[in-house]
Every structure is written in C-alpha cells, then in structure tokens.
Amino acid sequence: MESERTSEVVADSLIKEIKGNYLAIGATLPTERELCDRFSASRPTIREALRIMEFKGYLRQASNKRPVAEKPTIQKILKYTAENLKEILDDTDSQAYLEQMRQFIEVGALRTVIESSSEVNLARIHKALVECHHAIGNQKTFAEADIAFHRAIVKVVDNPIMLNLHDMFIRNLLFSRPPVSNQNEHDTMVYQEHKSIYEAILRKDAEAAMVVMNQHLHRSYKIRLQVPSVE
Hints:
The protein has 10 helices and 2 strands, in the order αααββααααααα. It has about 230 residues and is mainly α.
C-alpha cells in the first residue's frame, strides 16, 4: 500500500542503492512509471522522493532528461538550499538570521586577512575596490562589484564551506534588497566604507577594520527595513 511507501521511504531506499553502488554515480534513475510500479506509489509520491534525494545531494535533475544519481557534496547541498532561499527572503526573521550569519563570517574573516593575507589576496581586494568605484551609479554592476569586494575578503580564510555559504546566500540577500532613492549617493557611501576597510587592512588595524565592517553591514541591513513611502 502507498501509505507504507511514503516519499521518505522511497528516497531512503534509492539512496541506500547509491551508497551500496547498486546504482552507480552518474547512472540515470528508472523512469517515474517504473518507480511507481516498483514501490506501489503514485507519481506525486515518487516526485517528492526525488526532490528529497536532490535536497540531500544524491540526485541531479536535468531538464528533459531522467534524474541522475549523484554523490553528495557540500557545494551541491548548499546550492540547492540557496535556490530555496528565494522563498523565504520576504520573511523578516529569515532575513535577520542571514544578515547575522553574514556579519559573523565577514567580520571574523577580517582578522585572518590582517594576520595572514598575502600580496595576491590584497591585490584581489584592491581590484574589487576599484571595480566598485568604476561601477558607481549602475545598480546591477555596482551590486556585482560589492559582492566581489566582500567575497575577496572571505576568500582569504581559505575555507570552502564558508566561501560557499557566502557565495550562495549573500548573493540572494543582496539582490533581493529594494532599490535606493539615490543610486549615486548610495554607491558612493558604500565605496567609501569599502575604502576605509581596505585602508585599515593595509595598516593592519584589525579593530578599525572590524568596527567599519560592523557599521557597514548594519547600515546595509537597515536599508532593507525601510518602509516604502506611500504616494
């Protein structure tokens, strides 16, 4: 009976086959009809099972093709999670948690930057700063340069989990923010804050860099909380 073959049971069974090499990595899964017959389950149940497998990193969906068995990695799991973040970014609590995570990652990364950053890393941060300056006034281009500046700082930590969290979550967070009333004024202010952070890094002044970063991220988050004016 289908009641005994829930989507979780189906997913767990197929995952065990992948782990046991009965279903090879890269192999296509059976068709939905075949899975329905095998597990005595409906198509919605099978599709939910496949979604669970994808969430756990054991399956890759391809458009117009059957799903493929995969080996889970941190990058794949975070990528799938990040795609679903778009569904919760309108929730104030969720936004606050993500902003808190961002602050923890970036402020913490600054100390590593100052203590052990190489010339290559400093050059990468400087390049992103210059790109911010050139992009002032262009909303999309400046947003990309803004992300690149913060990413260059986090990359110095050399932690792939942290960098993937930053890449996948922060991009969605920044691009979901409402437009500002004066793009040039906003971009110039952000650039000046970035410049102050970079100059503190060059001076190896960790406290100053962390103070500016905290203020920068706090101000950035406050923009999201602004209530649109009613005309």
